[in-house]
Amino acid sequence: MSPAPDRPVADAVTGHWVDRHAPEVVRPYLRLARIERPIGWWLLLLPCWWSAALAAIAAGQPGPNLWHLALFLIGAVAMRGAGSTYNDIADRDLDARVERTRLRPLPSGRLRVRHALIFLVVQALVGLAVLLQFNRTAILVGIASLAPVAIYPFMKRVMPVPQAVLGLAFAWGALMGWVALFGRLDAPAYWLYAGAIAWVIGYDTIYAVQDIEDDEIAGIKSSARFFGTRVRLAVAGCFLVCVLFIGLALSGAGAGPIGLAGLALFAGHLAWQVGRLDPRDGAEALRLFRANRDAGLILFCGLALDAIWQGLM
Questions:
Q1: What is the CATH number of the domain that holds 30?
Q2: Which of 90, 169, 201, 313 counts the most CB atoms within 10 A of its CB?
Q3: Mean pLDDT confidence for 277-302
Q4: What percent of the chain has pLDDT over 70?
Q5: Has residue 188 been placed in a domain?
Q6: Could you tell me the pTM of the whole model?
């Protein structure tokens, strides 16, 4: 079977440089790593940055560790690419049956599985190089994150809400910033992780609204299918739990008014998303899903400014 025509993948950023300027020989690899869909690495990165800022508050430091923030950025891009590559290898047959995913490099025939496997190893090695810059406990915690990453692609075949496993993986950074600074995990890190899991389930349920009909035909399970007509209520519940747990994390770490204001603005953004969500409008669901980058940055800025203020005072 000849490869499908080279066209941008659904939900890619319109006019992204990968689709416009990248050489054709490397374009499938960049798409496999979701470079033209940067929202993924943002959502993987933000819990790391939250955790680094929260740890700085608890430690009385004037702001999060900038070196750690840079490492988390590199690691998020590399490991999001590795995770997406692994997911596409596992899901290539399912992706071929869903309209939004059938033009991905593997189901479209533009890339062979063995080449994707080599690319997966390269990205994982970059992630490992980043991880080795941290303390021993952080390295062990980071390695443990591979467990939910490994099983997630198969959960959408058996679990009614596979987003719960995705949450375990994508929220892992909420532990990493804390352990990178303290060399241990404490209650605020666990509360932040729990809140981030609820956030992931909420925003990925919004994302899954796009595929309800195709997922049903292909036999793919998702939280959007599971909640059905109650999807807005379910997302609202996830976001409420998220805010409550993160509030407990902030309280335990000694966050001040600036951090709490950041949390309040974050909560307001999540409430706005729930108000805008329409289960019949896939295009709006994609916009709301992407808006979670801004929500996460609002919370990070609040925590970082709180750490700076308290550290200087």
A1: 1.10.357.140
A2: 201
A3: 94
A4: 94
A5: yes
A6: 0.90
